[in-house]
Amino acid sequence: MRTVSFQGVQLTSGQRRRLAEQQQVRTSFINPVLAQQVEQTLKAVEARKEQGVKPERIWFVERQETGTICVAEWMGF
Predict the structure, then answer these.
(1) pTM, two decimal places
(2) Comparing C-alpha atoms, which of 33, 32, 56 is closest to residue 44?
(3) pLDDT reported for residue 2
(4) Half-sphere exposure of residue 14: CA atoms within 13 angstroms, side-chain side
(5) What b/e sequence results for 44-62 when a residue is b if at least 16 CB atoms lie within 10 Å of its CB, and e otherwise?
(6) Could you tell me where the DSSP H helices lie in 1-77?
(7) Are 19 and 11 in contact (CB under 8 A)?
(8) Tens of pLDDT along 14-54?
């Protein structure tokens, strides 16, 4: 792993302004309610993992077919 150090490097006024804008935008996009909900969800997931509970199945296969579908069957005839 490579470590990069920027000690002693000075930013230009444009770079400082851009960095300040990015930090301001980043804080304005983080909704405190959403951040709290995400944190609670992650804690709940970790608790379920520790208990050995399998995750909920959100997606499941309804049916699996092979071949070409008949247009008549697709239309319901």
Answers:
(1) 0.39
(2) 56
(3) 66
(4) 0
(5) eeeeeeeeeeeeeeeeeee
(6) 13-29, 32-51, 71-75
(7) yes
(8) 888 988 888 887 777 777 888 889 889 989 988 988 888 87
